[in-house]
């Protein structure tokens, strides 16, 4: 019997298929559209201390096999999240991972302490990698020291499982990943969107109100898959693969590269049924190949695991 | 239906919630595209089925138009809010530019079904793009009236549809509400006409969308209460709530 149960720190999930931050709102928006009970966890829209209006529209632009977005972390802020959004989300049959972003380690600590203190929230994902709000030079996500300070501040503030969402937009993701592990992160989400832009030739101006946005969707899969491979080979905490997962084989590739779980995001927009289909597909794959637990798929394509791979 | 517009009837079966005027569906188009395409429900004459009136603009709409009769499409909806009830007295003024007729056609059908008076103003760049003929037919008693305008004067009034509306309102005694759908500049113009006439105006807005259910915050428009999403807070907005200069410029 194939067991999809997946653990990331103390976060226990029915399946390794999570819903990525920014694509499911706070959760209730997709209630009744996605069978949330079959999903591992939902990661909320990123919450900041103060409410954020977000970027000027247009905020979306389609690209070949992908999507650019420049939402700009629009969210209701911590206070309204707790009073208006969390009570409704807590009724959903799925664990909630709160995505948070601060402008300083102290803000990350505030968010982690407050949200981590709520029993309705199972884990915290630290978002240091949104490409639409960062300063253009020397971004936090590429600076191991700055990332370390954020993780340490959050670590001191909460005992809840802490995921750190890395950016693919750095030449040295390993130094950042290792700094995060040393600072106390329980897991790494690899990775956020890549910066990109399009030009609206009809209006002869950038297609996005923010000029640039983050590239997600299928186009991102090979990029983030390579990063998962590298990061998973160099840290001992779990890695969560994110970027372009649309179907079961995409998820299997991430798992085989070393991810302990995956996040589905942009694929939800075309196929709200995608995350459940991926979970069902993983189960079917495991049954056909006599794999009884999901752990046995993790890193299956890596040298050190090929002995297992040859057996199935 | 016109040089660029197609009318589709989709059979959804009895599980389809009754679409309300103003609501839309998010359609998975048969092309290698990342997003669904949102379309207004443009008619629902029998329970379980509904119409879409689609202008071919790009790859998604082209792929839809090329589908054979009987093909199956994956549709999410009906989604979004609806037009408000018309005032008890007065004629509902429906103002459409181009493919904007799609957003008002179900409303026109429903109002006529209830024998409420309707005056539709339909504009297009030129006669071959006019879609007024997809609306309920004008009646002899004037309770369904249709006037057309073209930018190039090839049919009907030579000028904008909102100028036509403005002229009709001069000397009108009991105007009801304005309900409009079309390009942002037309909506801004209709809103100004409504304000000058002291009547309410609702606009059905169109934006590129991703989720269609209020989750991703991708389809926002500027309003007096901040950015609001077209998919979940709209697509129908009272024009007095909208920041029209930003909407047109943005």
Question: How would you describe the overall organization of this protein?
Answer:
- The complex is a heterodimer of chains A (312) and B (250).
- Chain A is of the alpha/beta class.
- Chain A has a single domain (6-311), classed as Alpha-Beta Barrel (TIM Barrel), CATH 3.20.20.70.
- Chain A is built from 9 helices and 16 strands.
- In chain A, β7 (96-100), α2 (105-116) and β8 (121-127) form a beta-alpha-beta unit.
- In chain A, α3 runs parallel beside α4 (173-183) and α6 (248-257) packs across α8 (274-288).
- The longest helix of chain A has 15 residues, at 274-288.
- Chain A is globular and about 55 Å long.
- The two termini of chain A are 15 Å apart.
- The model of chain A has no long low-confidence stretch (mean pLDDT 95).
- Chain B has 250 residues and is of the alpha/beta class.
- Chain B has a domain at 5-79: Elongation Factor Tu (Ef-tu), domain 3 (Beta Barrel).
- Chain B has 5 helices and 14 strands.
- Chain B has helices at residues 59-65, 101-113, 161-169, 184-197, 244-249, and strands at 5-11, 24-28, 37-40, 49-55, 74-79, 91-97, 118-124, 144-150, 157-158, 175-181, 201-204, 220-223, 226-229, 236-238.
- Chain B has a 7-stranded mixed sheet, with helices on both faces.
- In chain B, β10 (175-181), α4 and β11 (201-204) form a beta-alpha-beta unit.
- In chain B, α3 (161-169) packs parallel to α4.
- Chain B is globular, with a radius of gyration of 17 Å.
- The two termini of chain B are 30 Å apart.
- Classes of the chains: A alpha/beta (312), B alpha/beta (250).
- The interface between A and B is medium-sized, with 33 and 27 residues.
